[in-house]
């Protein structure tokens, strides 16, 4: 059984220089609409696998002092609201072997 549909893979990665800022949220909504239309929105949830770089810790080592990266903040707030409203997961690809000091 399919439980999740991923829309893109790390589309807001900073190295993409905003290439997908205007298209990823409409794509997410389109996939959700298609699932609703075929009656699968309760079984299959849509999400966007993000890279951890959407989070900016600033100059702090405390996670609660951070925020979404400035260039993605408004979009990320909309995405998080959408995921929450649809009971979908907030997904982040974590690469500890890259993040280690």
Automatic annotation (TrEMBL):
Molecular function terms from GO: glucan endo-1,3-beta-D-glucosidase activity
UniProt-listed Pfam families: Glyco_hydro_17
EC number(s) per entry: 3.2.1.39
Bilayer-spanning residue ranges: none
Reaction(s) this enzyme catalyzes, per UniProt: Hydrolysis of (1->3)-beta-D-glucosidic linkages in (1->3)-beta-D-glucans
InterPro entries: GH, Glyco_hydro_17, Glyco_hydro_17_plant
Signal peptide start and end residues: none
GO biological process: carbohydrate metabolic process
Keywords in alphabetical order: Glycosidase, Hydrolase
Family (UniProt): Belongs to the glycosyl hydrolase 17 family.
Protein name, UniProt field: glucan endo-1,3-beta-D-glucosidase
Lineage: Eukaryota, Viridiplantae, Streptophyta, Embryophyta, Tracheophyta
């Amino acid at each position: 059984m399919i439980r999740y549909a991923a829309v893109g893979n790390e589309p807001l990665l900073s190295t993409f220089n905003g290439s997908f800022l205007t298209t990823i949220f409409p794509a997410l909504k389109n996939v959700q609409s298609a699932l609703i239309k075929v009656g699968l929105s309760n079984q299959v949830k849509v999400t966007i696998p993000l890279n951890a770089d959407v989070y900016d810790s600033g100059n702090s080592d405390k996670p609660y002092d951070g925020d979404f990266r400035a260039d993605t903040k408004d979009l990320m707030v909309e995405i998080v609201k959408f995921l929450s409203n649809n009971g979908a997961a907030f997904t982040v690809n974590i690469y500890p072997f890259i993040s280690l000091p």
